[in-house]
Each structure stands twice: as C-alpha cells, then as structure tokens.
Amino acid sequence: MRLRFAKREKLAREQLKQSEPASRMNANVKSGLLVALAALAADQASKLYLLFIYDIATRGAVRLTPFFDLVLTWNKGISYGWFQAETAAAQALLLAIKLAAVAALTVWLWHAHNRITALGLGLIIGGAVGNGIDSIAYGAVMDFAFFHVQWGESRLDWYVFNLADVAIVAGVIGLLYDSLLGGSPAAKAP
C-alpha cells in the first residue's frame, strides 16, 4: 500500500515539474498576445482617427515640427514601398504572404521561452496584423508619419510610416537584442 502511494506521489511531483515550464511559457505567450493586441489597437486607432476624425485626406501635408509632418500615403507593397502590388492578384499574393508570416510568428510565439522574445514577436504580429487589416479594408496600407531634416541646400527624407511599422521595427530590435546579447537560445525560431 505504501509503495503504491509513494509511486503516485512521485508521479504527481514529476507532473508538477513538467507543468512549471508550461506555465512560464503560457505567461510569455499571454504577454506577447497582449502586446500584439496593444500594438494593433494603437495602430488602428491612430489610422481611424487620422482618416475619419482629423480628415487627413483633405488637409494634405500638416507640418507639426520643422522635422516632422503628417502626410497621407497609401502603400500597396510591403515595408518601404518594396514590391508594389498594383493588380488584385498581386495584392492577394502579398496578403497571403503576410498571413503566412503572421501564422509562423504566432507558432514561434507559442514556443517562446522568455519574455523579450515573446514581447518582440507580439509587437511584430500586432504590427503585421494592423497593416494586413489596411490591405483588406483599403487595398493598401495607410502611412502618415514623415520625418525629414534639412541643412542648407541638402535635405534628408525618411520613409513615410505608421505605428504598425514602429511596432514591427521595435519587435525586430527586441529579437535581435535577445538573440545577440540576451544569451538565450529561445530567441531562435522553432
């Protein structure tokens, strides 16, 4: 009788030990998903506000500072205007690629073993979904933030971007930090 009880107790302890990493993983996944939702909400709220309340389409370029303007541009490609998709078939292909990337990143997030990786992936997922919603709703991604610097006769213009792009870049920086300096093998994709 004692032997059976000892075996059950040992089995229960082993199951508890195995569930501990899963609970940490779940906390990381939850953190990543919350960050993804926050990035998505901030991106879509800013775009909806600028389009329908601020009415940026009729205002044209609005100078906020000597180096920052609000401008409305529509990007039918991917980041930095690469791979412009003018036809419906090309847009559908880009959207399918974006959806596949979000699915792969979500699988990676599900296996994230540390918080930095999960937060970085969450930012990328939230930004990608935000830009994907634009592609579906408008046929292009809405960009509005424009930084520029002028000194003398020279002028440097940065790409026009949105908050989804900011989230994606911040997420990539987080993954690079974790991979290069964090010393964690968990930053590598499964």
**Unreliable stretches, pLDDT < 50, 5 or more residues?**
none
Number of alpha- plus pi-helical segments: 5
Report how far the terminal alpha carbons are from each other: 44 Å
Number of domains: 1
Taken as a percent bin, the fraction of beta residues is: 5-15%
H-E string: HHEEHHEEH
Taking all Cα atoms into account, the compactness measure Rg is 22 Å
Q: What is the strand arrangement across the widest sheet?
A: 1-2-3-4
Tell how many strands the DSSP assignment holds.
Answer: 4
Taken from the alpha-carbon principal axes, the silhouette is: elongated
Relative helix content: 55-70%
* Main sheet: strands, sense, barrel: 4 strands, antiparallel
What structural class do helix, strand and pairing data support? Answer: alpha+beta
Mean pLDDT score: 85
